[in-house]
Amino acid sequence: MISKDKKYLSGLLKSVEKPGRYTGGEFGQIIKDKSQIKLRFAFGFPDTYEIGMSNLGVRILYGLMNTQPDIWCERFYAPWIDMEEKMRALGLPLCAHESGDPVCEFDMIGYTLQYELSYSNVLNLLSLAGLPLHSDERDDTMPLVIGGGPCTYNAEPIADFFDLFLIGEGEESLVELCRLYIEMKQEGGYTKEAFLRRAVAIEGCYVPSFYQVTYGEDKKITSIRPTVPEAPAKAKKRIVRDMDTAYFPDQLVMPFIETVHDRIMLEVYRGCIRGCRFCQAGMVYRPVREKSPNVLCEQAMRLFEKTGYDEISLSSLSISDYSRIDTLTDMMLAFTEDKKINLSLPSLRVDSFTRELMDKVSSVRTGGLTFAPEAGSQRLRDVINKNVTEEDLLRAVNVAFEAGKNSVKLYFMQGLPTETFEDLDGIADLAKEVINNFYNNPKRNKARPPSVTVIVSCFVPKAFTPFQWEAQDSLELCVEKQQYLGSRITDRKIRYNYHDAKVSRLEAVFARGDRRLAPALVLACRRGLRFDAWSECFDYEAWMKVFEDCGIDPDYYANREIGVDEILPWDVIDCGVDKTFLLRERELAYKGATTPSCKEKCSACGANRLGGEMKWCPKSKKI
Question: What pTM was computed for the model?
């Protein structure tokens, strides 16, 4: 994170919180001979070390890039406030963990964009690196700045700061991009402009400077058009079609300090067969592509041997929808139980939770259970296409109670389209019903009383979902609903937690924002706003002042219902799911009608045209 050549490095690290965030030198880091390197890549995570080190995408791409003998991929993270203050006071540049070299000296800088509230950190990191914020101010001698991750499905608010984005899965496109750079450098024909014109031919590559956006007097977008002949009308998402042959690391960089996910994360499959209408990941990660149990077990064993972690988490959007879950868990248990490794399944659905699965999974046996009904009434669960019932939830919690559990967490969302206060009543009633079921269960653990934790987040409309056109509740209404629900939960055995509505409002502004938000991000950076996802740093009033000073109305982005005929800022991206499908799903939502999962019936979302293989989808093709 900071240069290893500084004589005062030791004293500096002693003066900051968690110095292990900045030292580098971890077991498993990759060091290469600079004389053999043709491209140096700095991989940045715009949040703290302990969050970035837990990110599976970073682990995969870091390992993959370093399999290329002439490419060296290094890491950097956002320094915490105490370290940043000292870096600025001492004039220390942002440096990479492995070499300690300044990030501004690299050929490419890549950011993974996981969350809209990390945008201020992205700009702050560019500033710490000593680089101009705007892409058009960085010349041919400066690093190319690229972005990837889920936020690139609407990257328009930060489009002015990036040279290009890689849309979708980056394992193939990122290497192709680097190969193009090396080729042009060796040929002597490299300029940033020439490189970007050739890069747009790589599937998944979106160069925002090659598109002109125009607006009407009503503030709405009137056109998005390419300005160079090489740029396609839409940038198409890139996917990895065969997960069994896809790269997966067999060695991890082992952190010096505790991280958020201090364990092996095993990627079981990508995509989701469900169609929750609020969920962006469930739409943009389609189609489903699974790994086979044999491959997963081999990867797990190799990582255990190299890391010594005593927990393996099976990662996916909904692990119980994996078509061979029983086979996989049986095979995993064959070696994890012997070696005292905990097996964790973090994304279980209430309609597929069984005693058999619970008995297999050690993390479920030893810890509390978490389920996500999302809405308090069946009517609203049908609106959002959750496709679970109250009976499903009560059956699942009774399985847990019979096994001796007494603690359950329930996740809900507030402010969903068509929501009424009666739906909020349903959240309180459902939590109370879980408590009643505990006492009515003759096989319960009578030694301890039950505990139900209700956690409620605010609905945020996201790009490429059936609810992308919906307005978020006003801040005042969000707060009113939070207080109302709190008044309805009176049982001391039910704990009620809710997310800050102000944070969710800012998230909604950037989730549906366009390029006109760029000046606000620059001004926020100059005023020292960063770590907006951290409660101790988030300053809502300061952000509202930024918007006011830039002449931006946040209500226009967060609290306005968008017309279905409007051009959306993210219409320049092809995520694989057709807009006609999203509109059909929106209409069904208002009718309270559900759509079956992909496993039951193909609903023609359009994702099968991308390839991959869904064994239960008649329209899918193996490519």
Answer: 0.94
